[in-house]
Structure to design on (414 residues):
């Protein structure tokens, strides 16, 4: 039997990461470089919010069963504070330009495709079901973001400079995927080699030099130690529910 | 008696469509996984989402409840299940024909092929207007979560493709 608290924390970690990246990507709505890509990034957002809802609903069910609480997907998304959020730091970073947004999506989709494959085998049937539900969506995100990384890296001087700057900025946030938090039920450390391998294939195709090994990596998001950016996201995302608790469309 | 009730409920469900693709009933799509009629008058309808974030699910569940209430049924429970995960492989043949007639190319690749497609695209998607297979992918992500955008190179018409899932 899995430890209940670990299961809840792990489920919330997955939910928070999907929600915060979804919230970030959603800001591209009506600002995408061209209509088709605006639609693509907002479709990806919808999938991420869908993942988040499935994880939050499950976490709420577990919490209510264990402690006689009254949590819902909405209370977990809208009434928890910054230090309660467990998302990877990379999800909360600013969107920057299109290259930075694309590269972040590529890093996360590559990681999710590996993690969710593993989760599909979980003895926890609900997490396995959510992973199975999400994996095909993630494959589409991965394909789309990989193509964009290649297009930008192997494109014009301008696009290449932008994706190289994005690699410089984001690389130090990728180590966190693989450094387990005490509560995590899926040990992602053994996915690191596969992740590096997938990234290397796409970087090679994109003619992006692979970053040097053993660089300093940022951590903390999974245990609630966030960058200054998360507070602003949460303030905006939660303001309506905080002002009008329980408001519905 | 229960069998009659179940058959009648299926007839009602056949009249309910996906709000994003009104030409398909929720039975064509394979969203309804089971209809359970107990010996009392309780009814449970088990549905599964097409996509994790499918915004139509709440509307569909509401529609099911409404139509069954109108038909005089009470004590209706709608249960969501994620497993087994919905796949375009479940779409009925009749559903695929309806999609085509509506101008949306039906899914034609087996769901199990998706993870092998990193640097490939789905080939030979048939144009629902002129039936040419000389078509190209414009964008994997289309007007709704379930569709990609294609263009026919022969008749130039852009069209939606219900992407495999
Ligand atoms: Zn045509």
């Amino acid at each position: 039997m899995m430890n209940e608290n670990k299961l809840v924390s792990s489920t919330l970690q997955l939910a928070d990461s999907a929600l915060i990246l979804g919230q970030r990507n959603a800001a591209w709505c009506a600002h995408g470089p061209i209509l088709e890509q605006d639609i693509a990034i907002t479709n990806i957002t919808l999938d991420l919010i869908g993942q988040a809802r499935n994880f939050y609903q499950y976490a709420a069910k577990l919490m209510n069963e264990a402690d006689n609480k009254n949590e819902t997907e909405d209370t977990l998304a809208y009434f928890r504070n910054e230090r309660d959020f467990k998302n990877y730091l990379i999800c909360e970073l600013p969107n920057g330009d299109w290259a930075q947004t694309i590269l972040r999506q590529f890093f996360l989709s590559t990681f999710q495709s590996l993690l969710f494959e593993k989760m599909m085998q979980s003895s926890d049937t609900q997490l396995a079901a959510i992973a199975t539900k999400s994996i095909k969506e993630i494959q589409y995100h991965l394909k789309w973001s990989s193509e964009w990384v290649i297009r930008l890296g192997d494109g014009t001087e301008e696009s290449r400079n932008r994706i190289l700057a994005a690699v410089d900025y984001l690389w130090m946030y990728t180590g966190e995927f693989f450094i387990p938090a005490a509560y995590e039920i899926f040990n992602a450390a053994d996915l690191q080699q596969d992740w590096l391998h997938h990234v290397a294939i796409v970087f090679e195709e994109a003619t992006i030099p692979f970053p040097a090994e053993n660089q300093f990596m940022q951590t903390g998001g999974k245990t609630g130690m966030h960058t200054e950016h998360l507070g602003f996201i949460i303030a905006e995302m939660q303001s309506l529910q905080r002002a009008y608790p329980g408001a519905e469309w | 008696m229960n069998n009659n009730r179940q058959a009648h409920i299926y007839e009602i469900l056949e009249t309910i469509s996906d709000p994003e693709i009104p030409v398909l009933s929720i039975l064509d799509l394979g969203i309804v996984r089971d209809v359970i009629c107990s010996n009392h008058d309780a009814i449970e309808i088990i549905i599964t989402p097409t996509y994790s974030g499918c915004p139509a699910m709440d509307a569909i569940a509401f529609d099911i409840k409404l139509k069954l209430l109108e038909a005089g049924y009470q004590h209706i429970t709608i249960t969501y299940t994620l497993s087994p995960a919905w796949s375009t492989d479940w779409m009925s043949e009749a559903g695929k024909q309806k999609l085509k007639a509506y101008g949306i190319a039906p899914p034609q690749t087996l769901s199990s092929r998706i993870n092998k497609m990193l640097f490939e695209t789905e080939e030979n998607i048939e144009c629902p207007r002129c039936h040419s297979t000389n078509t190209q992918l414009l964008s994997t992500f289309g007007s709704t979560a379930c569709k990609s955008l294609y263009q026919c190179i022969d008749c130039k018409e852009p069209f939606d493709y219900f992407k495999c899932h």
Remarks:
- The mean pLDDT of chain A is 95.
- The domain at 4-243 of chain A is CATH 1.20.1260.10 (Ferritin).
- Chain A has one domain: 4-243.
